[in-house]
């Protein structure tokens, strides 16, 4: 039976991928609440929703495995405000992603098409990027793990109100010392997801550029696509993909923050986002009052996550300046030698490639 074989194949892939450290965006949250605003990809229910895209020209690069479905809900975010993407490996805020999967995180926006489809063409502009932090020797993915899968995103000043697709992209480099086009068993692994938000309030009227096509954003010759993170010595990783978009036009600098609480600092470029979420989440500051929203129903296949907001009880004497050397973080610092000698491979991926899916 074809269906039986397909089921067994899916099961095998699921078991194989379950042992690997892929990742996906499970849901979003903001001060407004928690929302299942993620567009479900074509593999959402077969155990491979967390699998990477390796063909950089594939339509899957837009929002993950195509076709993607319109999100169940849309997350409201006040203009000038921020929200969080909640990542997971197999379930939200579990081990998030394998520690081997070092790489940068990029966030793009594009207007949500009226018909609910995924944006196509040169419509995405980058609003946030976090690569390699030479000071702490951490990649964005390292910080994402430390932040228990919470990636904060700040809306840029001047962004017009309206509905947007948030395209989140992690580029895992553990096999990026080869090009997928030359060796399909290896290559940079792109973890791509789209979510839907509505920017409310009096947004700005800026336009942002450059705008890129997600299927043309990265090529084999794009700096950072081919990169050996195991070479030793100082890591000098370029920004992957285009620069952060710059705003032009009226209200290019104020956005909608006039009507909202000005507590949100200016969007921190590059490396600070995940870091700030990691360090700021436990702090009892005003804009971190993420109340669990009763409307969010966990996927029935998930084991309920007992520790959604752990590591909070350090608040009382915490100074405003986050100091890295808090005691419990010690085990998270990976020994460079250990990761350098270990070159994990995604066997699940190879199976997929071997079977013609990629
Ligand atoms: Cu993986």
What does this structure look like?
This protein has 358 residues and is an alpha+beta fold. It has one domain: Distorted Sandwich (Coagulation Factor XIII, Chain A, domain 1). It has six helices and 14 strands. The strands form four sheets. Strands 3-11-10-5-6-13 form a six-stranded mixed β-sheet. Helix 1 packs antiparallel against helix 6. It starts with a helix and ends with a helix. The N terminus and C terminus are likely disordered. It binds copper (II) ion. The site of copper (II) ion (CU) has 6 residues, from loops.
Per-chain topology:
Blueprint: H1 2-18, E1 24-30, E2 33-35, H2 60-63, E3 75-78, E4 82-88, E5 105-111, E6 122-130, E7 132-133, E8 138-139, H3 140-146, E9 150-154, E10 162-172, E11 189-200, E12 207-209, E13 212-213, E14 246-248, H4 272-280, H5 336-341, H6 347-354
Parallel strand pairs: 3-11
Antiparallel strand pairs: 1-2, 1-4, 4-9, 5-6, 5-10, 6-13, 7-8, 10-11, 12-14
Residues 20-22, 98, 101, 346 line the site of copper (II) ion.
Domain Auxiliary Activity family 9 catalytic: 39-231
GO molecular function: cellulase activity; cellulose binding
InterPro entries: AA9 (IPR049892), AA9_LPMO (IPR005103)
Keywords:
alpha+beta; disordered C terminus; 14% helix; four-stranded antiparallel beta sheet; 358 residues; six-stranded mixed beta sheet; cellulase activity; 6 helices; carbohydrate metabolism; binds copper (II) ion; disordered N terminus; Coagulation Factor XIII, Chain A, domain 1; signal; cellulose binding
């Amino acid at each position: 039976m074809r269906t039986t074989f397909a089921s067994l194949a899916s099961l095998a892939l699921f078991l194989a991928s379950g042992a690997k450290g892929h990742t996906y965006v499970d849901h979003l949250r903001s001060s407004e609440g928690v929302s299942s605003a993620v567009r479900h990809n074509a593999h959402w229910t077969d155990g491979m929703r967390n699998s990477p895209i390796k063909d950089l020209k594939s339509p899957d690069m837009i929002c993950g495995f195509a076709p993607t479905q319109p999100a169940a809900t849309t997350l409201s975010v006040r203009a000038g405000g921020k929200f969080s993407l909640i990542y997971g490996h197999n379930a939200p805020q579990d081990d998030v992603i394998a520690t081997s999967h070092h790489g940068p995180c990029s966030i793009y926006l594009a207007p949500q098409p009226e018909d609910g489809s995924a944006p196509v063409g040169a419509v995405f502009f980058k609003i946030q990027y976090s690569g390699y932090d030479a000071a702490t020797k951490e990649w964005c993915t390292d910080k994402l793990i430390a932040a228990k899968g919470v990636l904060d995103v700040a809306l840029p000043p001047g962004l017009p109100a309206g509905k947007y697709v948030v395209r989140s992209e992690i580029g895992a480099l553990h096999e990026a010392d080869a090009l997928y086009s030359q060796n399909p068993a290896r290559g940079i692994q792109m973890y791509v997801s789209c979510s839907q938000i509505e920017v409310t309030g009096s947004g700005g009227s800026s336009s942002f550029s450059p705008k890129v096509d997600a299927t043309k954003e990265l090529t084999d010759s794009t700096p950072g696509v081919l990169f050996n993170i195991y070479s030793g010595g100082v890591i000098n990783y370029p920004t992957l993909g285009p620069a952060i978009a710059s705003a032009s036009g009226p209200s290019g600098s104020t956005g909608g923050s006039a009507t909202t609480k000005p507590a949100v600092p200016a969007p921190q470029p590059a490396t600070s986002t995940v870091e700030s979420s990691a360090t700021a989440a436990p702090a009892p500051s005003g804009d971190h009052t993420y109340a669990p929203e009763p409307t969010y129903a966990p996927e029935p296949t998930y084991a309920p996550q007992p520790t959604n907001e752990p590591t909070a009880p350090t608040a009382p004497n915490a100074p405003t300046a986050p100091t890295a050397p808090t005691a419990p973080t010690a085990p998270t610092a990976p020994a460079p030698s250990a990761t350098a000698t270990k070159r994990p491979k995604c066997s699940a991926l190879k199976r997929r490639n071997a079977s013609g899916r990629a």
